[in-house]
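Researcher: Re-running this chain for the archive, since the previous output was lost when a drive failed. Same request as before.
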Amino acid sequence: MSTLGWTFQGIQLNNCKIGFDLFTSNSTQGVGAVAIIDAEVKDTPTFLRVAQSGESTPLAGSLALDNILLTNVPVAVSTAAGKTLLYGGTKRIESWVHGMVYAGADPDGQFIRGSIHPTHKPASLLTPDGKVFGKMHPQYENLQAVDIISIKACGALGDGKTDDTVAIQKALNEAMQYAGKKVIFFDAGTYVVRKTVTVPAGSRIVGEAWSVIAGEGPAFQDMRNPRVVVRVGTQGSQGVVEISDMLFTTIGPGE
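Model: Regenerated structure tokens:
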């Protein structure tokens, strides 16, 4: 568990004693890496506390802070022993890391604790106030049962062996006749596809306990001519696509 990574976006903290308390001892369940993006913290003595400050276990307590607005926060990052790693105040933290930083394909990273050059974010990914665009997990609470189309009812098996390419593509294409009012539900399973599946603009897809679409076969084995397993939209198409609780992967020749 200590190597798990977590990403928090758009967090707002107000009048807390400690905003985040990360226990990263090797002897107990801890947190491997945490990235916090676009947070606002007010009137909180310590924004974030970690258990370790050294380099001996680089994956235990690795942090990445990006666009953090502090208001009356004396300590931004400290250790459980009380050592301040990053002083706070009333300011904005553009980009600060604590942990291993890797460059290119070099497997030997460098331990860094301090500010780094902020990652460039295209304007198309940002909201008007400069934050990374995000959307809450859709619940579709206003839909009726008839608005949910089971992919297995459309002929897909999801058994991890059968080629479900045709059934999946047909279901996605037919759902568009309802102008985005239907949701394609992928029942729990692994759906093998042997050709690229195109998700039309306007589609809404929901999995069950992380349903899997897995590319397999010769179409995806040529490293000189790589092909995408699932393509969202086509050139020139416009619209919103919602995909949740799904995993996309590949199955190699020896698996």
